[in-house]
What does this fold into?
Amino acid sequence: MEIYTSLQLLNDLKKEVTKIVSLELLSRGILSNERLSIILGQAKSHIAHLFRRIKNDSNYLITSEFLEGYIDNLILKYGKRSFGIIEKIKYYKNLNDPLDNYLDRLKYSHPQLIRDFFKVIDTKDKAYWLGFIYADGSIYRSCEGDDYSRFGITIARKDKILLERFAKAIGFNSKYISLYERKRIKKGVENTYEMVKLEFKSKEFTYYLKQLGIMPKKTFKIQLPDLGSRELNLAFLLGFFDGDGRQGFTSLRSANKKFLEQIKDRYEIPFDIYYDKHNPGAFTLSLGGTLFNEMMLNYENSLPRKRKIFTINKFKTIELTEDLLQNLIWEMPLYVIAREYGLSQSTLSRLVKKYGLKLPPSTYWRDNFFLGKENQKNFKDFFKFFKENSKEELSFYYRSFPFNASSKIRAWVYKAKKIIEDI
It folds into this structure.
């Protein structure tokens, strides 16, 4: 039985087209995937996308619609010189009898896909996924002149569980979730990021997303939607947080400052919007512990690594006045005040700066042995342990008391040594 796979065809395409293109289109004698995609009349990522698909599914077939497009563009650009590779394309098509177009492939590969999933946002699940798409989803086109009907989400591979949940919700066949590496140069150093991607083409699916405010190149165009109830709106906000929120904090980030301002106004958030020092060109807004906890408790099936319930003090954050804060900064470290009042430490630092308050010197808490209320082992226990192991390095005590911050362990060691010296 004759076999001519999609991988063989792509390799032959690169090899044969390389022979007929001008040298200026080659890089060190090699034809790039991007350049080949353009020669074949497709989007720059087309060939790389096919290689990823074939890697995940060795039986993957290129549709007749694409194959005919390859032939038309090769004849247009290279005439008779392209007949050799065109014969290979025709051979592949006759041997494999691929589906006619991408719509047929969608029905074949994803028979359970719910194309009208976002027609009505009437559940927290739908609201959550819409918020996630607002943060990380995209609508784009397959090639120049095509309509914007391709949908995709790309996130870090560590959060693959989220794409798997989304795939299950919309009936997408999860075996077509693709893995790849993204390379970016930052400050002159090339960094590699492991990514995971879900994408497909559907006019109906993208139509309803467009009705809900998702559009091509959406970053600076999106507006905060009102889904009709606080529960749905909070689920939406959580979805957006799982896409663009900072783990371990209550802060959202976005390059669209107006979008954050709409969130601030709707939920009457007392905190200001600032430039995000971790992401140049972006802004950040702290939701505060109270709203964040309500958001978490409203919808439980969100990204596990970002789920957290903050301890909220009986005082409201808005009551953290200048006079009160002036007294507090001499009673406990900033990280403790932040936790007690449901703030991020960076937000609290900005309040201190805004009020022009003077903080205790850096050695103040070490000299005063602040140990914190939440320690699982008190100093008396530690001191007994220290006397028996007084010649060990600091790292030894870190390992012995891993549930406490290293700064607290250092304070304990300092105090213990001083007590022994005074005996």
Remarks:
- The domain at 124-305 is CATH 3.10.28.10 (Endonuclease I-creI).
